[in-house]
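Before drawing any conclusions, I looked closely at one protein, both as residues and as discrete backbone shape codes, quoted below without any editing:
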Amino acid sequence: MFLISAFKRFSTASVLTFAGAVPFVFAAILMYWDLERLPLIGDVQKVIDVYGLVIVVFIAGSFWGISVNLAGKKRNALMIISNGLTLLTFFSYFWLKIIPFQLVLIFLLVALLLVDYWLYFLEVNTKEYVTLRLLVSIIVVGSLFVVFSS
């Protein structure tokens, strides 16, 4: 009974947002234990790089959807940010080999969080949403630092 009432306090969006961080935490644990390759998964670092790429592009793409509810310069700015971060992620993954991709992901995730705060100040996002994004971003960025340093 307690578990059911505790679960009802969390929204589906909150549960799914935290669930999206699980692969990052799992990768950090594996890399910390020097388990860099797994039989079914392969190279843990490459898998988490691709997963991070997908997550960044997903969040950046959501800004495009949000932009349709804005007007003028704010709308244009959010569309440019959405496309710019998506293209930066793509090109960084394939061609920016001098910087480890985990560091690029950390930079991009912080940039996405800052955009979410900008949207909060525009009264597009709620305080609960940006708090959720901050918590999950801390978990993911911390996990990526562990993956990078291992």
